[in-house]
Amino acid sequence: MKTILDQLTINKNRLSQNIEQLAEIGKIGETGVCRPTLSTVEKKAFELVSKWMEDAGMTTRLDNCGNLFGRIEGKDPDAPVLMIGSHLDSQPNGGRFDGTAGVLSGIEAVATMTEKGIVPDRPIEVVSFCDEEGWRFNKGLFGSRGIIGKLDEGELGRVDKDGVTREQALREFGCNPDKLSDSVYPPGSIHSFLELHIEQGPLLEKVDQPVGIVTGIAGPLWLTVKVKGFAGHAGTVPMYMRQDALVGASEMILSFNELVKRDSAATTVGTVGALNVSPASRNVIPEEVEFTIDLRDIDLDRRNMCEYDLRENFKQIAEKHNVTVEIIEDQNSEPSFCAGWIKDIIRSECQHLGLDAPNLMSGAFHDSLMLSNVCDYGMIFVRCKEGISHNPAEFASNEDLAIGADVLYRTVLKMMK
Ligand code: GLV
Ligand code: MN
Ligand code: MN
């Protein structure tokens, strides 16, 4: 009997070898990856991936926002482009598949077309977007925001933990940050966008399916909270006289956690993932604490309500502890839904392979979220072990990745018309 793997058109071995080879760049430990955006490590990854793009028949370019593109021309070279892609930057202690699976399966789809002599009606571009993850400069989706003209003021002045600005990092990477607007695609010039990504959640594993059809992406709100108290001697200042920024911040963090959980049936999630204490000495009362908020929901009204309540709570908690609180908005994206016609194509291509792919929502954000501002988009999810991601233990099998890439290839054949 023919299995699904016997029916695949893409080259399963090439895809898994490429994933393995790329994982060596920025490798930490046995299975982890640290590939910061705009770093020498990412540059090395871009060089290797450019070569694979060229082998697949594409011409390559790096734009001024730090995005890497490979392009094959269509029968009509002026037709709006079908874009496929994801990102190659990783979390500081991330996995091998987040982002890379999407870029490499896009290249695999084009390589397969080239080998078969298929010329698309419209041009196809495979892209690795710059700084999807957002941890280095505390604001993500830089490259995908860059090509749709959605960069904010102060974007170039943001600094990483070593004081390097985004502007410097772009220059060192070979980009010209004075000409970011050169990267913007004119309205109507992107026909549609397709992204394959590992699920980063446990649902596909639960229903025992290798791939899923994404219905929409939850919108992230990223805030930085600055709590200011007064430093003093840990041994002499009586408890009732203290303005301890860390005690205030701790209560805020716990109240935020309770707030997010108040409706157990809701899709709201909230995380405090980074915290800095100053002056960070064991015998000094903390004067300043800075922490991050990541708040998401597919339901924007509910997320907005949660934001309103957290701001009110933080004000009251600051008063209670005699500290001040300032809240800065780093990133605010609305949720968005995938195009019905692309979901239909993905579903019918899955059925063609004998797959009963479920619909599922993405709690993680992706470059697709930005592209949804200018064109229709679709996403294919690939099962990942125990739903673990942003962790070196992240794992997707070669078989599942190959099936996902084949669904991508088949979907591209329909979308390129
Ligand atoms: C992207 O990596 C996210 O945080 O969802
Ligand atoms: Mn990702
Ligand atoms: Mn990620």
Explain the overall architecture:
The strands form three sheets. Strands 3, 4, 5, 6, 7, 8, 14, 15 and 16 form a nine-stranded mixed β-sheet that branches. With 417 residues, this protein is an alpha+beta fold. The mean pLDDT is 97. Strand 5, helix 3 and strand 6 (124-129) form a beta-alpha-beta unit. It folds into two domains: 5-218 and 335-415, Aminopeptidase; 219-332, Alpha-Beta Plaits (2-Layer Sandwich), CATH 3.30.70.360. The chain has helices at residues 12-22, 40-55, 100-115, 142-147, 166-172, 203-207, 245-260, 300-320, 340-352, 367-371, 398-415, and strands spanning 27-28, 32-33, 59-62, 68-72, 81-87, 124-129, 190-198, 211-217, 219-228, 269-271, 275-278, 288-297, 324-332, 336-337, 359-362, 376-382. The protein starts with 11 loop residues before the first helix and ends with a helix. Helices cover 32% and strands 22% of the residues. Residues 91, 98, 133, 390 line the site of one manganese (II) ion.
Q: Count of DSSP E strands? A: 16
Main sheet: strands, sense, barrel: 9 strands, mixed
Class of secondary structure makeup: alpha+beta
Q: How would you state the average pLDDT, rounded?
A: 97
Beta-strand residue fraction: 15-25%
| Gyration radius over CA | 23 Å
N-end to C-end Cα span: 33 Å
**What are the low-pLDDT stretches, counting only 5+ consecutive residues below 50?**
none
Q: Could you say what the CATH topology of the largest domain is called?
A: Aminopeptidase
The DSSP helix count reads 11
Q: At the fourth CATH level, what is the homologous superfamily of the largest domain?
A: Zn peptidases
- The CATH class of the largest domain: Alpha Beta
